[in-house]
C-alpha cells in the first residue's frame, strides 16, 4: 500500500509505502496479514526503512492501534532496518492507526483487531487488588479454622438440702447464730460441690 501526500506544501513528493505479507497458519486455520516493512520515499528515492513488529491480524480483519511509532515511549513497533541506515534520523508516529490489506468490502474497514495488550495497567491493578483480597480472605479463614474453643467447662451444683433429725448436742455444730440483728436466728450450712471438666 502506498500513501501519497500529493501537492501539500513541503510534503510534495513524500510517500509512505507499507509492505504487507499474507501467511497461512495451520494453528488458527486461517490466513493472516502482517505489516512487514515501512518505507519513506521522497521524490521516488527511499529515505528510510523500518521493520514492523507485532502488527498483524487475520486476513478478514483490520488492524488498529492508538500509536504506531518508532519512538520508545510508544512501545516502538517500528524499528530501523539497520544501524547504518538513515532511518535513525527519522521519527515516525501514526496516531489512531488502522490498516487492512486484504478482503476489503465496500471501501470500509472490517472488524479491527486492536493492539492493546492483554496486561494493560488497569488489568494489572485489578489483578493485584484481587490477589490482596484473596490473601486477606485466606488469612481470615486460617484464623477461623485455628480458633480454639474454651478447654475447660465448669459446672457447679448445689447439693440438695438434707435435714436429718438432730439431737440437742449436735445443734451447736449445725447452726450458728447470726448477729447482724437483735433477734437470734439460725441458718443451716449448705454444702456445695463443683465438677470441673478438662
Provide an overview of this structure:
There is one protein chain. This protein is mostly beta strands. The protein has 2 domains: 2-116, no CATH class; 117-155. Helices cover 15% and strands 39% of the residues. The chain is built from 2 helices and 13 strands, in the order βββββββββαβαβββ. It has helices at 121-145, 171-174, and strands spanning 2-4, 14-25, 30-42, 45-52, 56-58, 62-69, 78-80, 93-99, 112-114, 153-158, 175-177, 186-188, 192-197. The strands form 4 sheets. Strands 1, 2, 3, 4, 5 and 7 form a 6-stranded antiparallel beta sheet that branches. A 3-stranded mixed beta sheet has the order 8-6-9, with no helix packed on it. It is elongated and about 90 Å long. The chain starts with a strand and ends with a strand.
Summarize the structure.
This protein is 15% helix and 39% strand. The chain has 198 residues and is mostly beta strands.
Layout of helices and strands:
Blueprint: E1 2-4, E2 14-25, E3 30-42, E4 45-52, E5 56-58, E6 62-69, E7 78-80, E8 93-99, E9 112-114, H1 121-145, E10 153-158, H2 171-174, E11 175-177, E12 186-188, E13 192-197
Parallel strand pairs: 6-9
Antiparallel strand pairs: 1-2, 2-3, 3-4, 3-5, 4-7, 6-8, 10-13, 11-12
Domain V-type proton ATPase subunit S1 luminal: 1-102
Organism: Cariama cristata (Red-legged seriema)
Transmembrane segments: 122-145
Amino acid at each position: 500500500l502506498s500513501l501519497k501526500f500529493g501537492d501539500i506544501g513541503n510534503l510534495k513528493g513524500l510517500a509512505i509505502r507499507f509492505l504487507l505479507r499474507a501467511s497461512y497458519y495451520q494453528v488458527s486455520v486461517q490466513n493472516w496479514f502482517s505489516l512487514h516493512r515501512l518505507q519513506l520515499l521522497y521524490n521516488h528515492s527511499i529515505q528510510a526503512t523500518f521493520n514492523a513488529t507485532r502488527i498483524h491480524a487475520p486476513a478478514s480483519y483490520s488492524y488498529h492501534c492508538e500509536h504506531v511509532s518508532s519512538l520508545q515511549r510508544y512501545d516502538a513497533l517500528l524499528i530501523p532496518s539497520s544501524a547504518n541506515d538513515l532511518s535513525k534520523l527519522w521519527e515516525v508516529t501514526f496516531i489512531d492507526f488502522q490498516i487492512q490489506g486484504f478482503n476489503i468490502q465496500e471501501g470500509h474497514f472490517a472488524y479491527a483487531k486492536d493492539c492493546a495488550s492483554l496486561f494493560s495497567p488497569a488489568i494489572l491493578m485489578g489483578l493485584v487488588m484481587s490477589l490482596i483480597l484473596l490473601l486477606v480472605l485466606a488469612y481470615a479463614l486460617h484464623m477461623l479454622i485455628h480458633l480454639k474453643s474454651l478447654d475447660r467447662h465448669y459446672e457447679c451444683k448445689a447439693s440438695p438440702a438434707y435435714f436429718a433429725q438432730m439431737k440437742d448436742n449436735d445443734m451447736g455444730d449445725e447452726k450458728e447464730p447470726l448477729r447482724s440483728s437483735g433477734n437470734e436466728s439460725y441458718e443451716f450450712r449448705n454444702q456445695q460441690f463443683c465438677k470441673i471438666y478438662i
